[in-house]
Every structure is written in C-alpha cells, then in structure tokens.
Amino acid sequence: MAIPIPSRQLFINGDWAEPLLKKRIPIINPTTEEIIGDIPAATAEDVDVAVQAARSALTRNKGKDWAFASGAVRAKYLRAIAAKIKERKPVLAKLETVDCGKPLSESEADMDDVVGCFEYYADLAEGLDAKQKAPISLPMKTFKSYVIKEPIGVVALIVPWNYPLLMATWKVAPALAAGCAAILKPSELASVYALHLLASVFMLLSHLTCLELGEVCREVDLPAGVLNILPGLGPEAGASLASHPHVDKISFTGSTVTAVKIMTAAAQRVKPVTLELGGKGPIVVFEDVDIDKAVEWTIFGCFYTNGQICSATSRLIVHESIAAEFLDRLVKWSENIKISDPLEEGCKLGPIVSRGQYEKVMNFISNAKSEGATILYGGNRPKHLKKGFFVEPTIITDVTTSMQIWREEVFGPVLCVKTFTTEEEAIELANDTHYGLGGAVVSKDRERCDRVSKLLQNGAVWVNCSQPCFCQAPFGGTKWSGFGRELGEWGLESYLSVKQVTEYV
Ligand code: NAD
Known about the structure:
- This protein is of the alpha/beta class.
- The chain has two domains: 11-17 and 33-190 and 200-277 and 481-501, Aldehyde Dehydrogenase, Chain A, domain 1 (3-Layer(aba) Sandwich), CATH 3.40.605.10; 282-463, Aldehyde Dehydrogenase, Chain A, domain 2, CATH 3.40.309.10.
- It contains 16 helices and 22 strands.
- The strands form six sheets. The protein has a seven-stranded mixed β-sheet with strand order 14-15-16-13-12-18-19, with helices on both faces. A six-stranded mixed β-sheet has the order 9-8-7-10-11-21, with helices on both faces.
- The structure holds nicotinamide-adenine-dinucleotide.
- Residues 23-501 form the Aldehyde dehydrogenase domain.
- Pfam families: Aldedh.
- It comes from Gossypium klotzschianum.
C-alpha cells in the first residue's frame, strides 16, 4: 500500500519556508530501501532566522502573546494540537512506520501517547497560573517574599530518530506549556554526514511526522514563531542551534557522544542543558518468578521498537537455577515473533531504521562471536525477506563483562545474558555499566524488589515489568545516560526559571 509522502519545507515563524541554501535530504523507507521523498535540510542561516522568529514570539506585544499569556491560553492551543493529531492519527502512524520501520501497531500507540502528552501538559499549563506568586515563609516579619515562575525563553529541542514525534512531544508540550518559544530539530543520522556531502543517499533518513506537527500548528493558528521546526544535519543545524547566542536552553535526546559536543557548546555561554542519553538496561530475574511472564517482559523490553529504545532491556541477568528453563522459553517466544513489513497486520519486528544502523548492529553480533560469545538464537538477516534492514531477534550467551556486547549500547534487537547466584552479585552485574537509564527487577518477593530498586543505579526502575512509560512520571538517567528529567511536573519545571521577589513591609 503506497503512502503519499507530503512534501514540506522548514516550518519557521508560523509558515513553510524554503531552506535558504535550498538543501534537501532524501528519505529512505527502511523496509523497501527505496527513496520515497525528501525533506528540507536547515543550515546555520535558517537557524538564525528561526531563532529570531522564536525571540520575537516572546517579545511581541511585550510578551503578552505567549510567554506572559495566561497558562489557560496556552492550554487552549495545546489541546487544539492534541485534537488535530488525534484526527490525523491513521496518517501520522503510517508515516512514522514507513519512515522508521516500527510496526504500525507501535506507531499507533506512539500517536496515542503524543495526544495524551499534549493534553497532560495543557492541564499543567492551566495549573501554572495558580502557582504564581507562591508565598515563602520568612523568619522576619518585616519582609515578605514570593516566587514567580517564568519561561526560560527560546529553547532548542534536539531529538533522535527512534520515536520521532513522541520524543519531540516530550519536549515541545512542556516547553510550550511553560511559555517558551522553541526550535525543534528532528534527526538524521549524524554518522552519515560525510556521505551526504558526497551526495550518497543510501543511509539518510528524516522525520516526516515532526514536519506534520508544523502543519498542525498552522491549522490551530499557533502564534507565529512559538514553534519552529528545522530538520537538518546534526553537525550543521544541530551544532548551530547548540552554540547560538540567542538560544537560552538546550534540551537534547540522543547519544552520549553528541551530548558531550552539545555540553561543550553550551558551556561557552553558560546555557542550561537537559540530557536524555543512551542506556544498557538490565533486567534482573530471580528464581521465584512466573517464568512465562518474566520471559514476556524480557521479550517486550528487548525487542519492542526493534530494540531501538534508549532504556531497552539489553542485558538479562537471570538466576542460575532457572537459567536453562528461562532461555529455552525465551527462544520459543522469539521463534514466534512475526518479522515482516511493519505495515503488515500482526508484525512484531520491522527493519532497523537505516542501513548504517543495520550494519552497526550486525557488527556488534559478529564482534560478540569473535570475542567468544555464543549466538543462542538469531544473529542474521531473516531469510524470508529479500529487502530491508531486518535483523533477527538475537540472544547471546557465554558473555563476559569485558566483552563489547556487555559494555556498549547496541540499539537493536539484541539481548545478552549472564547468570548469577546471589542477590549482591545480581546488583553488581546490573550496575556494571557506564549507563543508568532504565533497569528492571522481577521477583515475587516484595521486600527484595524494594531493596533491589533502591540499589539499581538507574533513573527508572521497573518492578515485574519493563519499559512502561507514562507522561505523568519523570524520565531520565544517571551516569552516562544524562541528567535532568523529562515528563511529569519535572518536565515542565525544566523549562521554567524561578524568580524570587522580596519586599520590605
Ligand atoms: P545522535 O546523538 O546521533 O543524534 C541525536 C540528535 O542530535 C539528532 O537530531 C542529530 O541530528 C543531532 N546532532 C548530531 N550531532 C550534533 C551536534 N554536533 N550538535 C548538535 N546536534 C547534533 O543520536 P541518534 O543516533 O539520533 O539516537 C540514538 C541515541 O539516542 C541512542 O544513544 C539512544 O539511546 C538515545 N536515546 C535516548 C533517549 C532517552 O530518552 N534517554 C530516547 C531515545 C534515544
């Protein structure tokens, strides 16, 4: 079934604008490997124009249009955006799937989460009005103090490719709720920059749904400049945004390597950053579990979104007494995963997002083999599919903690396995990583779950499950997985600055 691909420009100052240098990036469908369209690529010149537009959205009419409008006014726009996205869900979900390769049912679930997230932040925007001028209790009666929460200003929102519209929404919705004006930079694969310059098109991708958000903003008459959308190459559009003197904050989701560059650029102008980075998530499975349920969560945690989740369950740490039985059932479940065109009914595993990522995942698997690990299941391209960047669900055993497969983020459907004897050993293995995003513990022993949850060095811990994510709960990491939190009230606070006013009475 052919999906019409909309042809869009950059979204700047409330309307579509051709990139000043007229550059475009081709879009490759990872299932068919065909070019299905292209999108504009912003350069530093376009970034400048967009930042100016955002700045004037905050100052126009002395800021009363947006930044200092009541939260209720901003909530009205956020709800209108949510309603339009709901209307367009079938189209947006299909675009997400042809763009990234995730099963259609998953893209549909993403769109529901996008709608829910805009609605949630609409409620918080309204609630913000009541929180203004919150009094502070002081020890001296001759003074009184209160707090005003103000939008930070112009914010750059730089996002990755695994959940294009959802990751964008996690930033856009709270930023707009807070009263900021934003420049959203969707992803391409930064690693193919050099190839792009050579006009090679085979590994580039883009994010169609993020551009459709521009059309939604137009339809709801969002005040001009409040949200600008600039797809482009990371080292070009992304780097210009990160170092731009009139950007007040950067919220970034992506790899740890890029985060270091962004922090370095931000440090030159003492700009705040929120960093949501990679992971190497453990799932610790104790001996007292219902094995089938634990296997189901492990499969979900590792293979959902084709394994391309920052908090994916990529290390299984299973008690030695149930390991053989557990792995046996894990393999049986894996055999039943339907790998197909992600638009096909019942698909559970689509292609990896691009050829570049596919090759990276395959390299991890072959390095694991040459380092002495065993490929218990998968490890290849599925034979029944002639095209597309597909990788079988892969389970790797005989892993040591010095192997690359244990230490580095794969970002593909690959699970590595280790067994343990004692609880202490399990926790030590789980924390044996530079990353600290999501971790899971599975046991029927409530006290043990509480104990292990406290000791896991992760920003999120899942008990008897893996990956559920709600826009009401904070999300973010420790260690190399970044700092700051998105979602919930914490997400809103990250776009607000706090001013205290103290009066002599
Ligand atoms: P990436 O770091 O390559 O790119 C992310 C974004 O940064 C893209 O928009 C890219 O264009 C931009 N970028 C690249 N170079 C830049 C530069 N020099 N200056 C400014 N911007 C630049 O990451 P990716 O490959 O798109 O995404 C995969 C990574 O994202 C994985 O490590 C994954 O774990 C992580 N991730 C984290 C979360 C989370 O919530 N913690 C969610 C999704 C993905």
